[in-house]
Amino acid sequence: MGESLTDVEFEAETTLPAPGGQRGAEPRRAAGAPERRGPIGTQQDGRPGPAEGHEAVMLLERARAEVDPVLRAALGSLPGPMRRIARYHFGWERADGTPDEGGSGKAIRPALVLAAAAALGGPEARAEAVRAAAAVELIHNFTLLHDDVMDRDAVRRHRPTAWTVFGDADAILAGDALQALALRLLAQDPHPAARVAAARLADCVVELCAGQHADTAMERRGAGEVTLDEVLAMAEAKTGALLGCACAIGGLYAGAGDADVAALDAFGREAGLAFQLIDDVIGIWGDPSRTGKPVGADLAARKKSLPVVAAFASGTAAAAELAELYARPREKEDLDHIALTVERAGGRDWAQGQAADRMARAMQQLARAVPDPEAAGGLLALAEFVTRRSS
Amino acid sequence: MGESLTDVEFEAETTLPAPGGQRGAEPRRAAGAPERRGPIGTQQDGRPGPAEGHEAVMLLERARAEVDPVLRAALGSLPGPMRRIARYHFGWERADGTPDEGGSGKAIRPALVLAAAAALGGPEARAEAVRAAAAVELIHNFTLLHDDVMDRDAVRRHRPTAWTVFGDADAILAGDALQALALRLLAQDPHPAARVAAARLADCVVELCAGQHADTAMERRGAGEVTLDEVLAMAEAKTGALLGCACAIGGLYAGAGDADVAALDAFGREAGLAFQLIDDVIGIWGDPSRTGKPVGADLAARKKSLPVVAAFASGTAAAAELAELYARPREKEDLDHIALTVERAGGRDWAQGQAADRMARAMQQLARAVPDPEAAGGLLALAEFVTRRSS
C-alpha cells in the first residue's frame, strides 16, 4: 500500500471536458445529499462532471497561484544547500540547479484550506488564510521527502525522488527544514487563529508519523494478518488526517466554532479515506495507459491495499485461493488472476461501497459545518474531484 | 568530527569536589572579565572550580527536575509506537518497554533558557519559561535522533541508538514527532513571548539542518581540503546555534529587548564554539579512562575536528607530514604519532587559544546583556561548566 498512500498526490484528470460535451451540466446537489453514490470510482467516461470538475480545477489553479509566492519566499529563506534540495523536490529546479517547470503537485491541501475559509468566512477569511495554506503544503512536502526515503520510492511526480539525487541525509534534512518553515510561517502570522492552527498542524504531524509507522510496520506482515480496522486506521492517519487538518485550519481562519471546525476536520478525513479507497481500486484495476503503472503493479508489490485486505478478510473460498496465490513465489504469478480473485472475494465491491459510504459521511459533515449549499460548493467540488477518478 | 559535534552531550564531570578540597573557592569574576583564560581545557585536576561547578550542577539538576514533567507529558501524548521510541531515546524505557533510569542528557539547553530568563526577569520569568525550555530540549533530541541515523552512530549516552533498536524509519519518524511536539508546546503557550520564541526556534532548526548538511558534506572531503572558516561555521551552526537560541528564548520570556536578546544569542553561540573546541581537543588528547573512548578515536576515524583542520592549515613542515600520515592506509597508523604531529603543527595550541578567545567573547556578550554580575552568575557558571573539562 506504501506508494499510493505515501504519494497522496492526486494525479487526477485535469483536462476540462470540451464545451458542449456529452454530459449535460448536472444540477449541483446540495451539500449533505448522500444520494450521489453511483459515480464514485465507477463513472464511465473517467471525467469529472463538467460543473464540479471545472470548479475544482479553477480552485486548484487559484490556490496554486496564491500559495506559490509564499512557498517560494519560504524556500528562498533557506541556506543554499537546503534551498536547492527543497526547490528540486518542489519541481522548481533540476538536479543541476537550473530552473524547471515540473509540477509541484495539485495543491489539493492548500485549496481545501482556502475553500474552507471562504465557505465560512467569505473572501476576506480566504485571503487571510493563504499563509496557513502554504504551511499545510510545506508539511505535506516534508512528509513526502521523508516517506520516500523510508519507502525507498524512486519516483515522485514523474521525477527521481530527492534522496536518489542528493542522498538520504540531505533528503531527511530538507524535510526537517520544511517542517520548521511550516511552523515558522504560522508563528509569524499575526492572525488570531494562527496559534491554534499551529498546534493543530503539529498534532497532525504526529498523526502522520504514526500513520507512516503503521504502514511500514504492516509491510513486514502478511496480507492475511492485517485486519481491515488496522488498515483503515492507517489510511485515515496517513491520508485523511492532513486533509481534515487543512479543512479545519480553513475553518479556524474563518472564526468557526469548535463544532464546525470538528465537522470540517471529519469532512476532510472521510473524503481522504474515500480518495484512498478509490486510489487503491485504481492501483489494481486501473487502465495502465492512464495510471502510468504496469497492470497490477500494486499486486506485484504485494501491497496491503484496502481491497486486498478486504478480500483476505472476507472468509470466502476466493480468500483462501488468494492466500495460496500470495504464498507462491512471485515469478510465477498471474497478476490478472490475482486481481480477479480479489474481485471474486469481494475486495473491489467492498472498496467501492466503502468509498461511497465515506463520501456520504463527508457530505453529512460538510452539511453540518456549512449548511448553505452555495457556500459549501467549493469544498464539495474538491472532494468530488479527488474521488471521481477512474484513471 | 561527526560524533563529538553530533552528540553535543556534555559528559562533563559532575562529581563535586570534596569539601575542603585543594583549591580554595575563587572569588567569582564579574561577567565580562576576559582574563580567566588559563583554565579553559587546561586545568590540572580536571574538575570545575568549586564555586562554578557547584552552581552549574545545581542549575542543571533543577532544570532537569522542572523540565522533565513537561517532557514526560509531551511524550505521553504521542501514539503508542512513537511514544515508545521517544521514551527509549530519552533513556526512560528499555528497548522492551520496561522503565529505565538511563540519563537523558545534562539538560544544558533547558538550563540555559531558564538561567537567561532568571538573569533578566527574575524567578517569575524563569517559572514562565519552563515550557519553552522543554521545547528547546525536544528540538535538541529530535536532531540527535536524526543525526544518529545519518551518521550511523551506534551509541548515545552509553546506550544503543534508537535506529539500531527500532530501525531507521522509526527513528526518523520519532524525530519528526519530537520537532512537532516542540513547536506545539510553544503554540499552546499563552505567554506573549511564545510566538517570537517559536519563530526563532524554527529558524534555529533550519540552521541546525544546514550545519548537519555541512558536516556530512565535509566527511566526503579530505582534511586538507576543508578550510578553518568552513569548519568553524559548521561548528557554529551545529553546536552554537541551539545554545544561542536557548539563551535568546530565555531573554524573550524575560521581556528583553532586541539588543539584549541578540547579545544572549551571541553569548550562547560563542560558549558553544568554545565547548566544541575543547571537546575536539579532548577527542584527541583526552584520557581514555575518562572519555570512555580509545586513545585517538577521533584520529582513527579521520574526523575533521577543529585541531586537525587547523594543523592542516598551518603551512608548517608538520602539516606536510600530517598529510602524508593521513594518506597512508589506516591499518598501519600510529595514532600517538599523528596526535603529536597535529600538536607540532600547532593544532592543539590553536584550539585552546580559540576556545579561550571564544569564551572571552562570550563573557563580553554576557556583560552586554546582563550587566549585573550577580544576575549573570547562572549563565556564567553554565558556560564555564561546559568548557572547563579535561575529560
From TrEMBL, chains A, B:
Family: Belongs to the FPP/GGPP synthase family.
Biased composition (Acidic residues): 1-12
Domain of life (superkingdom): Bacteria
Chain ranges passing through the membrane: none
Region listing for Disordered, in residue ranges: 1-52
PROSITE patterns referenced in this protein's UniProt entry, alphabetically: POLYPRENYL_SYNTHASE_1
Keywords: Magnesium, Metal-binding, Transferase
Name of the molecule in the record: Polyprenyl synthetase
InterPro entries found in the cross-reference section: Isoprenoid_synthase_dom_sf, Polyprenyl_synt, Polyprenyl_synt_CS
